[in-house]
Amino acid sequence: MNFDKLTDFAITIVLAAALAGNLDSFTKWVYVARAKLLYESRTETWGSPDFFEIKNHTTNRK
Q1: If you ran DSSP here, which 8-state letter would residue 57 be given?
Q2: Which long-range contacts (CB under 8 A, 24 or more apart) does 29-32 make?
Q3: What pLDDT score does 59 carry?
Q4: What is d(CA 52, CA 55) in angstroms, rounded to the nearest whole number?
Q5: What is the value of pTM for the model shown?
Q6: Which ranges in the chain belong to alpha helices (H)?
Q7: pLDDT digit string (tens) for 7-40?
Q8: Does pLDDT of 49 surpass 80?
Q9: What are phi and psi of 19, to 5 degrees?
Q10: How far apart are CA 44 and CA 32, in angstroms?
């Protein structure tokens, strides 16, 4: 799906919601979906940054 088709789809959905008189509830749904997306994209849920084990090599430093 390219950007033009996605844009046309989004405009169609918004116009349909406006014509049906549900633009306020649609806007609230978008805000809730965006808040959920931001909450789920926290760095805490990305997993451990220590994916590979770091082995401590002792070196002789003077």
Answers
A1: -
A2: none
A3: 59
A4: 9
A5: 0.51
A6: 3-20, 23-40
A7: 999 889 889 988 898 888 888 988 999 999 888 8
A8: no
A9: -70, -30
A10: 20
